UniProtKB/TrEMBL annotation, chain A:
<dbReference type="Pfam" id="PF19300">
    <property type="entry name" value="BPD_transp_1_N"/>
</dbReference>
<keyword id="KW-0472">Membrane</keyword>
<dbReference type="InterPro" id="IPR035906">
    <property type="entry name" value="MetI-like_sf"/>
</dbReference>
<feature type="transmembrane region" description="Helical">
    <location>
        <begin position="228"/>
        <end position="253"/>
    </location>
</feature>
<feature type="domain" description="ABC transmembrane type-1">
    <location>
        <begin position="95"/>
        <end position="292"/>
    </location>
</feature>
<feature type="transmembrane region" description="Helical">
    <location>
        <begin position="97"/>
        <end position="121"/>
    </location>
</feature>
<keyword id="KW-1133">Transmembrane helix</keyword>
<feature type="transmembrane region" description="Helical">
    <location>
        <begin position="167"/>
        <end position="188"/>
    </location>
</feature>
<protein>
    <submittedName>
        <fullName>Peptide/nickel transport system permease protein</fullName>
    </submittedName>
</protein>
From TrEMBL, chain B:
<dbReference type="GO" id="GO:0005886">
    <property type="term" value="C:plasma membrane"/>
</dbReference>
<protein>
    <submittedName>
        <fullName>Peptide/nickel transport system permease protein</fullName>
    </submittedName>
</protein>
<feature type="region of interest" description="Disordered">
    <location>
        <begin position="1"/>
        <end position="36"/>
    </location>
</feature>
<keyword id="KW-1133">Transmembrane helix</keyword>
<feature type="transmembrane region" description="Helical">
    <location>
        <begin position="155"/>
        <end position="180"/>
    </location>
</feature>
<feature type="transmembrane region" description="Helical">
    <location>
        <begin position="109"/>
        <end position="135"/>
    </location>
</feature>
<comment type="similarity">
    <text>Belongs to the binding-protein-dependent transport system permease family.</text>
</comment>
<dbReference type="InterPro" id="IPR035906">
    <property type="entry name" value="MetI-like_sf"/>
</dbReference>
<dbReference type="InterPro" id="IPR050366">
    <property type="entry name" value="BP-dependent_transpt_permease"/>
</dbReference>
Length: 311, 311
């Protein structure tokens, strides 16, 4: 177990490192000059040169990379150009908002999608179930910027019961969380349906039913118990993806999270901020994946972590 | 057919409805059996999907031939006319341009990018997946690590990064969407090839002295092409959504192209007074993506069942 964890942590660190390196190279490959964004439109060539020297942009890319890596070892991802503050602090300051939104959305998803999926599996291919599955396809097909704006119009403009944007009260969480959850519910409920349909058709379930196990225990203890691993994996994967910033939804609702920060960092060519954002979100996403994997043996005693990794 | 119909997983042939020998299994019971319910569900999805897709795709393809004003023809005297007025089926936008014409021409851009992106990602994905599955060893390791790395990256953030840095031209956007989508096809092809390469006809081809590349290209690929092609429709749906999200965030093809994402983000400012500016384009996107998704789902289900019946 400890050896397994150590190896996984090592792999994760390597992945994060490679990701950050890739982003480092990518932003420097691209056209566009952060110095001119930093110094403003009226800057003279001398000003630009001074800003470049000040930001360390006049060094070779390799030297910049060395400075960047040395900084990382000290927990320093450089100063954000546009915020004029440590980039890591800026990102970490936005993180709670993104995490709040992700947790809320994934809770709504789990609470709605699992019962919905189970119901769809039990009533498979009846008229009502076909209707429901067309609806889940629709949920999966809605662009989130559109459903977000529509929800906003209905519940914040036409019937003003909820705040439209930002995060001042907890009610402000409702619309963004629902917008995010629509897509997630569609994806997860379809997965639950598939898994449960397979579990409900399994021979051991027929045996259990023949022995008089109640229908509720059949579905939830026997069927769900055996479908839990793929469902939990999917929820974990979706949650990790949400942590990476629900860019579009954050922009629509002016949510002060990491996603809207990225859009701004890209507009201003804020290299350190872009790098710090990718570093933080990639590390978080990988941590969530690891956590989900570590949970498997708790759900299914047949799983042994070392072997699962070898297989 | 000597098997009693009630326990047969096969769909009943037409002759079975008037059995020569007496049977308790009436056509009504048959119609309610699992197999026929499944077939009915697939058929409903197929027709519904085809209907939704055609309703959107046919006008888009004919956009140039329809008697519509040009997508960029402004008429400031006719700003923000509601739908069905002044000869504008979808109304006009804030610059007096015909909304239907803009949506249809925007659809041409979206569809072209979507289809092109899927073609490119198909080529990359199938080749990489097939090589990984067939040659194994080092090739497999490299492809698998690449897949893992990409799946742990924040997708939309990376797309925004690349588009923001390299400029939102149509080739860049197409390529970016293609790169975003190749993992799905690569993984599928790899798993299909892994099964295929163990079959006797491959061994026979090897014994006959064919080179490995020839076996892969002439014998393995044609056999995995059909199952792999079934996900293509689902990928097109995804690509259209991705493109519209990018152009909503301002990272789509630039003017003069009217794109779905930008029509909606422009119309957002007038949402309280002119509901049609974002509602109608959004509904068109949903209709198209729902249609393509349903069609893809139905085709997959039908093929899967067909294969089970063969076995």
């Amino acid at each position: 177990m400890i050896r397994y964890l150590a190896r996984r942590l090592g792999q994760s660190a390597l992945t994060v490192f490679l990701t950050v390196t890739a982003v480092f190279v990518l932003v420097r490959l691209a056209p566009g000059d952060p110095a001119s964004a930093y110094a403003g439109p009226t800057a003279s060539p001398e000003d630009l040169a001074r800003v470049r020297a000040q930001l360390g942009l006049d060094e070779s890319v390799l030297a910049q990379y060395g400075i960047f890596l040395r900084g990382l070892l000290h927990g320093d991802a450089g100063m954000s150009y546009s915020f004029r503050a440590p980039a890591l602090e800026v990102v970490l300051g936005r993180l709670p908002y993104t995490v709040t939104l992700a947790v809320a959305a994934i809770l709504v998803t789990a609470v709605v999608a699992i019962p919905l999926g189970v119901w769809m599996a039990r009533r498979a291919d009846t008229a009502r179930e076909i209707g429901a599955s067309v609806l889940t396809v629709a949920g999966q097909s809605m662009p989130d910027f559109w459903s977000g704006v529509m929800l906003l119009t209905v519940f914040a403009v036409l019937v003003p019961v909820l705040p439209a944007s930002g995060f001042t009260t907890w009610a402000g969480l409702v619309l963004p969380a629902v917008t995010v959850a629509v897509l997630q519910i569609a994806l997860i409920s379809r997965l639950v349906r598939r898994e449960m349909a397979a579990a409900l058709a399994a021979p051991y379930l027929t045996v259990a039913r023949a022995r008089g196990v109640s229908e509720r225990a059949l579905v939830w203890r026997y069927g769900m118990g055996n479908s839990l691993i793929p469902v939990l994996t999917a929820l974990g994967t979706r949650f990790a993806a949400l942590l990476n910033g629900v860019v579009v939804v954050e922009v629509v609702f002016a949510w002060p999270g990491v996603g809207s920060l990225v859009v701004r960092a890209l507009e201003t060519r804020d290299y350190p901020l872009i790098q710090a954002t990718v570093l933080v979100t990639a590390a978080l996403a990988i941590a969530v994946h690891l956590l989900v994997d570590v949970c498997y043996p708790l759900l299914d005693p047949r799983v042994r972590l070392g072997k699962a990794a070898a297989a | 057919m000597s098997v009693p119909v009630s326990s047969s997983p096969l769909p009943p042939s037409p002759g079975d409805s008037s059995p020569a020998r007496p049977s308790a299994v009436t056509p009504r019971v048959l119609a309610r059996s699992r197999a026929s319910r499944q077939r009915r569900a697939t058929r409903v999805k197929l027709w519904l999907g085809a209907g939704c897709t055609l309703v959107v795709v046919v006008p888009i393809l004919l956009a140039g031939l329809l008697p519509l004003p040009g997508p960029n023809e402004q008429d400031l005297a006719q700003r923000r006319l509601p739908p069905l007025s002044g000869g504008h089926l979808f109304g006009t936008d804030q610059l007096g341009r015909d909304l239907l014409s803009r949506v249809l021409h925007g659809g041409q851009v979206s569809l072209a990018i979507g289809v092109l992106a899927v073609v490119v990602s198909g080529v990359i994905g199938v080749l990489a997946g097939a090589a990984a599955g067939y040659f194994g060893g080092g090739v497999d390791a490299v492809v698998c690590r690449l897949l893992e790395a990409q799946l742990s990256l924040p997708l939309l953030m990376m797309l925004l990064l690349v588009v923001a840095l390299f400029g939102p031209s149509v080739p860049v956007i197409t390529l970016v969407i293609a790169v975003a989508q190749w993992p799905e096809l690569a993984r599928l092809t790899r798993s299909l090839v892994l099964v295929e390469r163990e079959k006797p006809y491959i061994a026979a081809a090897r014994v006959l002295g064919l080179r490995r590349g020839v076996i892969l290209a002439r014998h393995v690929l044609p056999n995995v092409a059909r199952p792999a092609s079934l996900v293509v429709l689902l990928l097109v749906a995804q690509a259209v959504l991705l493109e519209s999200a990018l152009s909503y965030l301002g990272a789509g093809p630039q003017r003069p192209f009217a794109t779905w994402g930008r029509i909606i983000s422009d119309g957002q400012d007038y949402i309280t007074t002119s509901w049609w500016l974002i509602t109608l384009p959004g509904l068109v996107i949903v209709l198209l993506v729902v249609g393509v998704n349903l069609l893809g789902d139905a085709l997959r289900e039908a093929t899967r069942r067909g294969r089970k019946a063969d076995a």
